[in-house]
Amino acid sequence: MQGFFIRFLVVFFSASTPFLRAQDKQAQVPPFLQKSYFEVNVGAIHYPFGQANLEPTYLLQSAVEIPAAAVRLVLFGYEFNKILSAQITYMRPVIWVHYGQIGQSKNGQLTSDIPTSYKMVRMNVGGLTLKSTLPISNRFSLYGEAGLGTITRKGFADKLENQVVADANYATFLFGAGLKYHINSKWALQVGANYSPENKRYKQPATTFVGSGFVYNFRPFTVKRLQDGINYGYKHPKQWMQVAYTSNTLGYAVNNAVSDKIPLFWGGEAEVRQGISVSYFRNVFHGPKVFALDWGVNASVWQTNVNRENFFTLSVFPVFRLNYWHAHAFDAYFYYSVAGPSYISKTELDNNKMGSHFTFQDNMGTGIFWGAKRNLNTEIRIGHYSNGNTSVENEAVKVPLTLGLGYVF
Question: Which of 217, 238, 269 is the last residue of a domain?
Fold first, then answer.
């Protein structure tokens, strides 16, 4: 799932109860986030691509594959009150639309299948919507949403670079409605539908999504819950520096496994051969045991795999960290960093087009804080750079295994 729009840069705030101020200022959910939420929805997308979406002279000669599976995320939502909230959304299919045989009419003659490298249409929908919620019982509520969105579509061309399905990037309206079941103050389940209208100018069909998923609302921890975490013995880092080295010596098997076989992360057409990174991290807040939210800044120098091109990136990014193993000698964590606004020094790498100098950094990895004071850090990760389809050109960068060594202070 490639990110879009501000996939979610979390605001840096920290606060706590008077008891915790003397203990750990990052132990409580920041006030701003206490009214925020995110959503994950999985379902089916419907957009009838076909002959009407082809440029003039091109004729569809076989069926179009339109896989239904899709995801819709609320990357960040904020509750103004119990009735009204605003949210940043992102929706895309799991697998892109694929055209089959396409002929071309020239001088009254119809050719057989036109030659083209691939006939894939990539499309996603990002949005900013207002949501109104109407409680109908203690557990159930109805909601409706409306707002503005951006549809980004990457079409394809024939061998002569003539557009067959044209690229598109335009503003649209977004609408939605659904039913929500509240499990408790933090968790809810929901079913819903979303819609964006047809745009004849860009030959874009109306798009409908129907799905179900969950909502997680950030809420403050109780003093007892936080005290239990302190008693358990976790030592949460406040800030640390890290130096990392990237190499493709072991190949790209991990990247490919989590982007192609298991859709947990993203790949890229341009591949990094080696690189060096320097990063600074600071904790925003952490739960009593498991969850932590950090932010970081990063400067990296890279070399591509094919043409040995050198380029650099500068990034600011959020980090979602899950502490999954607390031991006497170390604390182990899994982390996921997504939608870090970044600058990339080149817009074409190994003949792959990045779209623009603006891009997003994404990382996924695991690591440990170790030593008696947990002041040493070792980490291994993979990475990715793409513009989240905010530009029609987005062939992305694949970063292989990276080893990081850090110091907490």
Answer: 217
Task: Output the CA torsion sign for 354, 359, 360, 365.
Answer: positive
DSSP letter for 288, please: S
Residues 301, 272: contact at Cβ < 8 Å? no
Distance between CA atoms of 199 and 166, rounded to whole angstroms?
13
Whether 12 is covered by a domain: the verdict is: no
Q: What CA–CA distances, in Å, run from 171 to 98, 149, 199?
A: 24, 6, 10
User: Which position has the higher pLDDT, 4 or 213?
Assistant: 213
Q: Are residues 179 and 326 in the same domain?
A: no
Q: Are residues 257 and 145 in the same domain?
A: no
Phi, psi torsion values for 190, nearest 5 degrees: -150, 160
Q: Which domain holds residue 270?
A: 223-408
Q: Is the pLDDT of residue 86 over 50?
A: yes
pLDDT at 15: 34
DSSP secondary structure letter of residue 252: T
**Distance (Å, whole) CA 401 – CA 382:** 5
For residue 244, the surrounding DSSP H or E stretch is strand 239-247
Query: What CATH number is attached to the domain comprising 359?
Result: 2.40.160.20
**Nearest alpha-carbon partner for 254 in 243, 264, 245, 244:** 264
Residue 195, strand partner residues = 175, 208
What is d(CA 44, CA 27) in angstroms, rounded to the nearest whole number? 39
- Using alpha carbons only, give the angle 343, 291, 298 rounded to the nearest 5 degrees: 20
- What distance in Å separates the CA atoms of residue 75 and residue 10, rounded to the nearest whole number? 10
Strands (E), 305-396: 310-326, 330-344, 348-349, 352-353, 358-370, 376-386
Measuring CA to CA, how many Å separate 141 from each of 82, 180, 238, 303, 306?
Answer: 11, 5, 39, 52, 54
Return the structure tokens found at 2. Answer: 């490639």
H or E stretch covering 84: strand 84-93
The pLDDT of residue 262 is 72
Cα 148 to chain center, whole Å? 19
pTM for this one?
0.74
